[in-house]
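Lab notebook page, bench 4
Experiment: in silico fold of construct C2
Operator: M.H.
Input chain length: 199 residues
Purpose: comparison with the prior construct
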Amino acid sequence: MKKIALAFALALASLGAAQAQTWVPVEDIATKPLRFVVGAGITYGGEKLITAQYTDGDKVDIDGGGTVTLLAGLDYRVNPQFSVQATVGYHVDNAAGSNGDIRFERVPLELLGYYHVNDKVRVGGGLRYVTATALRTSGVADIGDYEFKDTTSPVAEIEYLYSPRLGFKLRYVNDKFKDKTFNATVKGDHVGALVNFYF
């Protein structure tokens, strides 16, 4: 899964670079301050929740901060120096086989604010509300399903805007999850690299 995620992220970056348009000045962006955004990326971090072992001897760790994240939402340019972004996403780490599946999934809702250092770089942060968090298992990997309480976490990131329609993000998120049954805390803190498309 993690190799597929890396290949997917690299393919997105290549596609975006190939289709990127000529840079548009800030003055032109002001005519369309509200834009849609969709994005995808890979994340790494958090503590190990469980290890999936395949019949060929391969092992895959399911981590609290991994591995693939998808998002969609709105980006609003308040003025030349500041913008805000609101998104809903899907964040998952999984190991799948023909006879079983292990998946740690959650749905993050984020509200972020940015300061534009210049036309190409912006830095920012905000809050991430994570809901529908669960560890799900099936088949020969079935050890039951575990649900986690909703949580709010801080986010910090920097984005390089290759063009008005394409951005590359690096981020840090400090997620922590509490199991609903045993009240045990799981660390989901992670770093991530994302590609965002604006339209």
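Observations: The two ends are 29 Å apart (CA to CA). Residues 2-24 have pLDDT under 50 and may be disordered.
Next step: discuss at group meeting.
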